[in-house]
């Protein structure tokens, strides 16, 4: 079949695409705590089962975040073609982040205005989920004799690490290379960009210790905050310049993230903050503990061991100058960097579809932060995975979040043409 027919059929279903996106926005799947997961999965199951998909609702029982009050529900829908072949899987997260301040429209109404659909999750990423569903439905309706299978998953908790979503499904074999050969995650990366992967992450908590004492005689105690101050001062002097000098071949966007970075997420030292209704002064006490949480983002050219050693070396240097310096460094969380090869089959198929629909070569990018590809890569052992979807990344998590209807239509065309090139064997 000529691809023009697929594209024309997608244009005919614009109203369906818009209505589906609005319906998804109207289910307020806020995370945390993780509300209405079951409702949105049941809504999608009803739609997809009626269109020939076999659906499975899976609760990530016992996963991080799962509870009887806030169960972590996920949906996997699969539609088989008439011939054996490979499986193309579209994975979208169903959760949205908190609303926050500054909205001028109802965040859960799905207002349509000037070619845009507004709402929390419109671009991140209910618009992308809707686009992949319309693409799969159009493709399967127009070319029912296709080879292989299409899967659509709607998964929980991406915004909080994905442990009750893609990680759980990957641990239970749903993303293994024997079952799934191509994965597209329709995160809002813009309709002409292909995201190949992400940088690595190391989170750790550093605690420095001191000795409690009276604040009027600090020399009788040992101030843990001063020890931490020395650590932060050394970071300013040596670590931050060293990180800025480490650059990468990864095409990270924005370009400011094409280097190693470190954020100090929090500092806590000394007494707890006093209750708001307490009208007295704090007591004069020398702090015996100070904690920071660091968020180090590393490059594909770096090894996690070296990243940790670099920080330990800094602590050793501080310790050499401060006799009473004692500390604990606790690992919290780590993610390896990943980057799919630009000549991987799914990348080539999407790139050809972008060229055909938009007349441009796609821009290949890498995300500064991680998303669910990390679990598909590490647990699922799947290297043929990208993020591609409609929407402007900068609008994610913002007030008055929106997605452009024309962008969604173009992305839907790209996804349908990608299915055609990966799941048909003739005439393309
Ligand atoms: Zn997202």
From TrEMBL:
GO biological process: lysine biosynthetic process via diaminopimelate
UniProt name for this protein: Probable succinyl-diaminopimelate desuccinylase
Upper classification of the organism: Bacteria, Pseudomonadati, Pseudomonadota, Alphaproteobacteria, Rhodobacterales
Native organism: Algicella marina
Enzymatic reactions: N-succinyl-(2S,6S)-2,6-diaminopimelate + H2O = (2S,6S)-2,6-diaminopimelate + succinate
Pathway: Amino-acid biosynthesis; L-lysine biosynthesis via DAP pathway; LL-2,6-diaminopimelate from (S)-tetrahydrodipicolinate (succinylase route): step 3/3
Keyword hit for Metal-binding: yes
Keywords, in A-Z order: Cobalt, Hydrolase, Metal-binding, Zinc
InterPro entries to which the protein is assigned, alphabetical: ArgE/DapE (IPR010182), ArgE/DapE_CS (IPR001261), Bact_exopeptidase_dim_dom (IPR036264), Peptidase_M20 (IPR002933), Peptidase_M20_dimer (IPR011650), Peptidase_M20A (IPR050072)
PROSITE patterns tied to this protein: ARGE_DAPE_CPG2_2
GO terms, molecular function: metal ion binding; succinyl-diaminopimelate desuccinylase activity
EC code: 3.5.1.18
Cofactor(s) named in the record: Zn(2+); Co(2+)
NCBIfam families, per database record: DapE-ArgE, PRK13013.1
Family: Belongs to the peptidase M20A family.
Superkingdom to which the source organism belongs: Bacteria
Enzyme type, top EC level: hydrolase
The keyword Metal-binding appears for this protein: yes
Chain ranges of the Peptidase M20 dimerisation domain: 197-321
